[in-house]
Amino acid sequence: MSDNNVVSLQAPVQDALTEILKAGAQKLLAQAIEAELKAFSPVTWL
Fold first, then answer.
1. What whole-number distance in Å separates Cα of residue 45 and Cα of residue 38?
2. Residue 35: partners with Cβ closer than 8 Å, 6 or more residues away
3. CA–CA distances in Å: residue 29 to residues 17, 18, 32, 42, 43
4. What is the pLDDT of residue 10?
5. Biggest alpha carbon–alpha carbon distance for the chain
């Protein structure tokens, strides 16, 4: 049998909208992590 389930990977999409969405998602994630650290840590944050 020569059947297989291997598929080739395509290069990631590099367009302006994708980059804007990616940057926004990274910013939201950073804000969420900072909020969790503030809630967890007794240290006062600036």
1. 7
2. none
3. 18, 16, 5, 21, 21
4. 83
5. 64
∠ CA(44), CA(34), CA(19), 5° rounding?
A: 150
Tell me the domain boundaries of the chain: 16-46
**pLDDT one-digit tens code per residue, 1-45:** 578 888 888 877 788 999 999 999 999 999 999 998 888 877 665
CB 38 within 8 A of CB 45: yes
**Alpha helices in the chain, H assignment, sequence order:** 16-40
What's the gap between Cα 1 and its chain centre? 40
Phi-psi region of 35 (alpha: psi -120 to 50; beta: other; left: phi over 0): alpha
Instruction: State if pTM tops 0.85.
Output: no
